[in-house]
Amino acid sequence: MIAQQNGEETPLLQRPEQPTAKTPLPWDQIWILLLLEMPELLSARTLAPFIPQLIRDIGVTHGDETQVGHYAGILQSSYYAAHTLTIFYWSQLSDHIGRKPVILTALLAISISMFSFGLSKTFFALVASRVVSGAFDASDSMVKSMLIDITDATNMPKACSYVPIPWTIATTIGSLIGGSFSRPADRFPNIFGRSELLKTYPYLLPCSISALFILTIWLVTYIRLKESVSTKTPLWELIKGGFLEQSYSKPHQPLSNVIVDPGGVKSKPLPLRALLTPKVLSVTASYATTGLFQMGFNSILPVFYATPIELGGLSLDPPSIGALLAASGIIQGIFQLLFYARLNDRFGARAVHIIGISSGIPMVILFPVANALARAFGIGTAVWLCVAIQLALKTNLIMCFPCISLFVRAAAPDRASVGATNGIAQVAVAVARIIGPASAASVFSYSLQEGHNAWSIYYFMIALVFLAIGTALLLPRDPSVWESSQ
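Now predict its structure.
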């Protein structure tokens, strides 16, 4: 089928009639894309349980417990700072040379950075390792682009419903690896007590296990993944002509059609200016503000768990934190797998998205409630009930992201510019992910200090929720509205 296109802003699919039959999913490639959803999350979840203790161990806070969250936020934001500077260029490059070379480069970089992180003994070295990972890691963006490449409007929601499977596996495995294998010489002296290497580098083992998982995924990708970009420009040709010059200097001619099957005329990637349409800007704003809250929440969650009760936290140790994060990932994955596609079909992508981000309000309120109960009664049933409800509500928040992927697909001006369109959204959310962890962790540390308002962090987080709800209202009821409009 070839969809008629009248200009740069014509949607990917012209649908005068709603299709009745859903296209079967190409499982020979879908399973590899699901596997590729794991590396970024696996590496981040491996680090999350022990980062607060690691920051204490290297002495950068000089014993000031209130500064742990501040440095944890800087460490997390360093990844996204580097990611922001490179992700659009990786995404745009993939429209020219293909997705697979970019994915393989990203996986190799993540693996190297994990080994480096485990061998780091200073805060600067930790930051440098995360910067390397962020600068080269375009795997998540490439997976989203490839998912759009190989699906259509009828089967993409179903494909998105399977994404929680690798998320759940990565979250569970990563959290357990990070929580169980940090400081192995102390925790398992009979097995690792004689290893001088693990005594010197107490966090090398979990980082190495995670890196080896990712290298295995690299091998599977190299052997089995098929390229989804039908027209590719040799990298040497891009280098000779200047990548940016080639991308932007050629005048774009209105295309007569958009490719949906191999028999059509192939379109070419559009320049950046042609991509900045109202649709793209709307979905980018919603993606960024949702990511801002999500990353802010994720950054303070383990710090809140690890902070002493008298300072406003729950005084949990790394194994307990890892177990909670793993359980959360399992719950989120099962729920989204079973219900996301049905909820999307029943209520529409925008409604699911707004409900998801609105769940952030009770999630934030449960922070001070859990601490108040811990102060009054200790860590007992009431506290664990609050934690369970909070993590269950987080399931709604996670469902926002497949909704946004559907809107990104609908907003892309043409098939050949899917990578660059997704890259624009990824740049915006990467900026939000820099600001989110650093600002939330800093406000959290500020609220813990004597003489400051302990509720500052909660006011801040609820304000982020309302900002995300406001941008979500810019989206249409369903992505099909954009796809069918001229």
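The mean pLDDT is 82.
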